[in-house]
Amino acid sequence: MPDQLLRWVQLGSEPGVAPGSVERVRALLNTDDRFHGVDHLTGAPVGLVTLRDALRHYLSSGDATGLDALAAAHPLVVSFGGGAALEPAGGDGVVAGLLSEVHRAHASGEWTRLKACANPDCQWVYYDGSRNRSGRWCSMTECGDVMKARAYRQRSRQS
Ligand SMILES: [Zn+2]
Fold first, then answer.
1. What spacing in Å lies between the alpha carbon of 33 and ligand 1's midpoint?
2. pLDDT tens digits, 35-76
């Protein structure tokens, strides 16, 4: 079966590519490209757009209300055929598969490494691979420098 998700989602976009399958979740989140003001899910199935927006909201606020509603409509069952995994049991298979991946990323701790860039003009979702998970910007050379310069200007204006 062809991977339906790859019709809409570009894996491996720098900066902050995630290792392994959690990249599918990160790439979905970044279809809402706020830095360039482009929505790559224009024309995509509404379920995928709803999932992306609910995930974005959950990532930035911790509020899972929308995500829980989606999960209720896309049930998953435990399957031991290929090792323990959660498999779609109804609803949209692409959405359910991604919900399963989000669950797996929580269990592995990878979810907490997905962060939205602290530059409000960017908000690119990147994988924070740093040891102490202290990253704040998608890229030090781009947003890191921009935000530091902005903070410096603010400080010098105040003093
Ligand atoms: Zn950024």
1. 11
2. 889 999 999 999 999 999 999 999 999 999 999 999 999 999
Q: How many CB atoms lie within 10 A of CB 62?
A: 7
Report the CATH number at residue 64. 1.10.3300
| Alpha-carbon distances of 70 from 21, 59, 91, 92, 99, rounded to whole Å | 20, 15, 10, 10, 9
Confidence grade of residue 159 (pLDDT, cut at 50, 70, 90)? low
Tokens standing for residue 141: 């050379």
How many angstroms separate the alpha carbon of residue 138 from the centre of ligand 1? 4
Domain range holding 13?
Answer: 4-158
Q: How many domains does the chain have?
A: 1
Output the six-digit token pair for 17. Answer: 């590519």
CA of 13 to the centre of ligand 1 (A): 13
